[in-house]
Amino acid sequence: MALPVVDTEYLKEIEKARRDLRALIANRNCAPIMLRLAWHDAGTYDVSTKTGGPNGSIRNQEEYSHGSNNGLKKAIDFCEEVKSKHPKITYADLYQNRRLYCMDVGVTTMVKRLYLTCVVKHFNFSRC
């Protein structure tokens, strides 16, 4: 199976968006809610059907209005500031891009460990 090829221009646009996300997260001091948004967007993955996952669907009212997603509309609105500058980037890439930054610098070590533990258990990556 061939690996997907990502357009060089798209990768450049992702890097620009990453810089804007870093600035937004630093200026708004919003790393925890951004990390939570990325987690909840990815949390739609279904192991049995291998469907869902980080696809940007959390931006839909039906999903962000769900009880477990309470408060995430604020993070979605923050992302729209970056999305408007980089319209070619998918919402999935935008939301997961911020997760990487939050994991790198914006969240405490304890939160990082908790997040990674949840990901491994939820997605059963231990069998990968």
TrEMBL record:
It comes from the Eukaryota. GO terms for molecular function: heme binding; metal ion binding; peroxidase activity. The keyword Lyase does not apply. One of its GO terms (biological process) is response to reactive oxygen species. Keywords: Heme, Iron, Metal-binding, Oxidoreductase, Peroxidase. Pfam families: peroxidase (PF00141). InterPro entries: Ccp1-like (IPR044831), Haem_peroxidase (IPR002016), Peroxidases_AS (IPR019794). Residues 18-96 form the Plant heme peroxidase family profile domain. GO terms for cellular component: chloroplast. Belongs to the peroxidase family. This is L-ascorbate peroxidase 3. It comes from Cucurbita argyrosperma subsp. sororia. The gene is APX3.
